[in-house]
Each structure stands twice: as C-alpha cells, then as structure tokens.
Design goal:
By secondary structure, the protein is of the alpha/beta class. It has helices spanning about 15-20, 45-50, 90-100, 110-130, 140-150, 165-180, 195-200, 220-230, 245-250, 255-260, 270-280, 310-325, 335-340, 360-375, 390-400, 410-425; strands at about 5, 25-30, 35, 55-60, 70-75, 105, 135, 185-190, 215, 265-270, 290-295. Helix content is about 40%, strand content about 10%.
C-alpha cells in the first residue's frame, strides 16, 4: 500500500505521544524512532496532527505532475472556500486554482449532489425491504477502518464511490467528449485537505481503478492561491455549479442534511467513530437508518492538510451555504447525469485481516495462545514506555519476534533488582 504519512527521522525523538493517539495501534517506537505498521495504517493523519516535534508529515503528489498531461483538470473540495479570510465569492477561489497552471477546474460538490440522490434511492429501497441500516462510504478513512477492523459491517456500507471519484469520472467523460481528446490525455488532479485520498487513489476500495491521476495537498498550493485571492480580481472566469447541499456535504452533518434523513447518527473524529462503530457492531443503535461517520473533527474542514482553523473555516463555508439557499440553489439538477451513469462499486469489498498470525490455522492458534500467555505476565498498565500502545500489543510483537520482554521497563527493573539481590547474597 502507498501511504501518505512519512517520517522525518532526524526530528523524531521517540517520545511515544503518537502511539497513544493512533486509532488503529499502527505505531511503534523501537530504537528511539517511530515506525508505522503499514497493514494497520488507515492514513487518518492523527499522528501528523499531534506530533509535538513535527516529525510526521503527509507526502502527496507535486504540482509539477500536472505537466505530464495534455489537458490539466483540477477537482477541488468546497473546503477551500473556508480557507481564505478575504474570499468574496466561490468563483474567485476557482480562478485561483486555474492560476496554478490548470486548464479546467470543477467542484467535487457536483459528485456530492449525485451521491446524495443515488444514496437516497438506495436507503429508501433498503427501508422498504426492511433491510439493514446503512453507513456512508463518503469518508475514505472510515471506509478503510471498517474494511480492516469491522468486517462484519462491510455489508452495511452504501455501495457508492466517493463524491471526489464521481466528480473525476464526470470530468474525464465531459472533457473527452467536448475537446475530442483521448481520455488518457486528460490529467484529473484532486486538491484536498484529506491525507487519505492518496491511498484511496492508489488502492481503491469497492472499485478497481481510480479516475484521479494525482492528489495535491491544499497546504502545498495555499500560498499561491492566497496571493491570487488577495489580489481582488475584478472579473472571474470560472462559474460555480455547486448547490448549497453540495457545498455543505463536506462539513459535519452535511451528508445527513443532503440525504434528508431523520433517524440518523452523525459522528466526527476518528476515535469517536471507532467508539460508535463498536456500538454499531453490537447492535446498540435501534431504529437507526443512516450513519454518517467522518474521520476529522468538523468534517473535511478539519483535514490535517487544511490551513485555517477548523471552526473558522466551517463558519465561512456555512455563510456561503446560507447565500446559496437564499438564492434558491439548495440542490443541483443532476438528473441527466444520474440517469446516464452508474456510480456503484464494481467489485466486492473484502476483509483486510491485520490480525492474521499465520496462514496455518494450527500455528495461528498456537501463536494466539502464546500471546495471551505473554500478555498475562506483563503488568497491564498500558503505559507506552516500551514503544507499544498496550501491553497486549507488546505481547503480540514479542511473539512475532519484533520485540523482547525486556522492552518493558517494569520487567527489566524486576529482573535487574532480582539479579542485584542474588549478587549481594
């Protein structure tokens, strides 16, 4: 898997702050440096957000990559509208994207409107058949979390591609037809605050290949866009096709609002989502129809690749939403697009088993029993001093040969005290 999270080793001092915040226990600190277990990482970016030494960072595609294509198209999240304190209209932000070297720019809110219409139809069909409560597939982090840690809930996921992916598909088809060019000559690049999008493009869930050619961090282009926005251009070249619901989709509760769902649950923050999925899996939410889970607090505005404070950005976007509602632009007319295209997954989501101990069931059972035996001998304090998030995680690493019982400072101290006592005697 190609993860976006990277480590600057010279800045990592092995403080272990990250191992406690990682929602999937994907981080270890051995040899004084932080390491990520690739199979456990879901690219939520929490380690980047909380690292006190800024040793963790997200690596996305360089802007120069757009020059590999004859036609350069950008798709942008409405989150960018909340990043500028002097933005008067959405069109100016879209023009700022064009100033980066793109030929065309489109808003992912288009895909959000399409997702909303398709999802409403899917939910209504499930309800009429007395079917299951459903989970949004819009957040790639939550989608990967379910695939990896809650496989029993895979069947509850709405089988639709993300709004970003839907938008990319529309853009590629539209430009190919209008410009009479081969689809492969069109480079579609997503400008986003979400660190998980790179992994989602390289290793899609629910479909074979992505229509997105590259993922560019909003932080990497913010300065150039800010300079353009601050120049206060008198005229704009772009035209926004967004609706109020499409813009609001990427704020927390935006999905529920667009889907017009009453029996719903909205949870933001990846650790909060984990707690909610634990209860969801145990059938604690009676009467629930729709679950909106977003990894970042506040929705995509809280993405680790955002520049502005989450709540300031959210408030600015809410102002644009209010303006669009006042102008009668609550919903975009996308009926023709929905009728002509299918946005559903084209392959089954398979469980990704990170806890697999061995291909042989007999050996796996032996290792499991050994892990439990080792764990019972550890203090159970989950202090993190060993470089593992929990004592049980240390026991697992010991059995796998990645660690030693002497990584536990309490065991080491006990052994040393015993050795000193024996020496004195």
């Amino acid at each position: 898997m190609k993860h976006s999270v990277k480590l600057k080793k010279d800045k990592c001092f092995g403080c272990t702050v990250c191992i406690k915040q990682c929602p999937t226990q994907a981080i270890r600190v051995y040899g004084g440096k932080s390491e990520i277990i690739d199979s456990r990482c879901i690219d939520c970016g929490e380690c980047v957000r909380i690292c006190p030494n800024k040793s963790r960072y997200n690596k996305t595609d360089n802007l120069e990559k757009i020059n590999d294509y004859k036609i350069k198209a950008a798709i942008v999240s409405p989150v960018i509208y909340g990043q500028f304190d002097d933005l008067l209209d959405i069109e100016t932000a879209l023009d700022a994207v064009l100033s980066l070297g793109f030929d065309h720019v489109f808003e992912t809110s288009i895909g959000a409107d399409i997702y909303a219409k398709s999802a409403r139809e899917y939910i209504d069909k499930e309800e009429k058949s007395g079917g299951r409560k459903v989970i949004s597939s819009s957040c790639p982090v939550v989608l990967r979390l379910i695939q990896t840690y809650y496989p029993d809930l895979i069947e509850n996921i709405i089988p639709l591609k993300t709004p970003d992916e839907i938008t990319a598909q529309i853009v590629r088809d539209k430009l190919s037809k209008e410009l009479n060019v081969n689809k492969n000559d069109i480079g579609v690049f997503l400008i986003t605050p979400c660190p998980a999008q790179l992994m989602n493009v390289k290793s899609p869930i629910g479909y074979k290949t992505s229509d997105i050619n590259g993922v560019i961090s909003f932080l990497d282009v913010f300065a150039k866009m800010k300079k353009y926005v601050s120049s206060m251009p008198e005229k704009t070249m772009s035209k926004s096709l967004s609706s109020a619901y499409g813009i609001g989709w990427f704020n927390v509760r935006g999905q529920t609002r667009a889907l017009e769902q009453d029996n719903h649950l909205v949870v933001d923050g990846i650790n909060n989502v984990r707690d909610a999925l634990d209860q969801f899996e145990n059938d604690k939410f009676k009467g629930l129809k729709f679950f909106e889970g977003v990894a970042c607090r506040g929705g995509c505005c809280g993405g680790v690749l955002s520049f502005e404070n989450t709540y300031v950005a959210k408030n600015r976007i809410d102002n644009f939403i209010a303006r669009y509602i006042k102008e009668g632009k609550e919903v975009m007319d996308i009926s023709s697009l929905v009728d002509k295209k299918c946005w559903r997954f084209d392959e089954e989501i398979k469980e990704y088993d990170v806890n697999k101990l061995d291909n042989d069931m007999g050996e796996a059972l032996k290792k499991y029993n050994l892990i439990e035996e080792v764990a019972s001998e550890l203090p159970g304090l989950d202090c993190g001093s060993c470089g593992c998030p929990t004592c049980h995680a240390l026991a697992e690493d010991i059995v796998k040969g990645y660690a030693s019982e002497f990584d536990c400072i309490f065991i080491m101290r006990t052994k040393l005290n015993l050795a000193n006592r024996e020496e004195r005697e």
